Amino acid sequence: MPNNIQLTLNQRIKIILPFWVLIIGYFIILEWVESIPPTDWIGWIDPFIPFVWWMIIPYYLHYIGLILPPLLLKDKRKLKRLTETSILITLVCYISFILWPINAKAVWNDIEPNHLDFLYSVLMKNGWDQNSFPSMHVAISGLFMWVFAFEFPRMKWGFYMIGFFIFLSTFLIKQHFIIDSIAGIILAYAGFKYWIKKGKFCHE
Which of 27, 49, 62, 181 is most enclosed, with most CB atoms within 10 A? Predict the structure, then answer.
C-alpha cells in the first residue's frame, strides 16, 4: 500500500489514536505531581494583563481542534507525521510538568465572576493547577494551526485567526502565565518545522 494513499476515516482515526490516548496522561500527571510556586520573574507582567471573560470561548475551540486531523488530513504520510510530532510535543510538555510543575494559582486569583463561570469551573479543579509551563494547549493547537494553514492555503487566514485567538485566550482568561503561552507557541512552531523537514526527507 503506497504511503500517500487516501485513507478511510476509520483508518485515519487509527493513526491519530495513539496521540489521543497519550493525552490521558495529562490528567494522570495532574493527580500525581505536586505543584510548586512560581518564581517572581515568571508572572511579573501578568498583573498588567486584563481578564477577558468571554475569551473562554476560543479557549474551548482547542478541544474541538483535537478531532480535526483525521477529518482534514486524508494522506497517510502527512497524518502519521502529524501524529508523531504531536506525540513529541506532548512528551516535552509532560517532562516539564513533572520536573518543573509550576502552579498557576497566582493568575487564577484574577478570575472574576462572569456569565460563563460554569466553563471556568471545569478548568479550575482543586489540585489541577500545575498545568503551567509550557502551555500544551497552545503548543498542540498552534501546531495544528500551522499544519492546516500549510495544507489548505486558501483557508490559512481562518486557521491563523483561530490559532491566534486560542493563544490569546490562555492568558486573557487567566488560565496561564503569558510566558507559558509564549513557550507553547515557540514549541508549536518548532514542531511545525519538524513536520515540514520530515516530509522533505521522506520525499513527499
Answer: 181
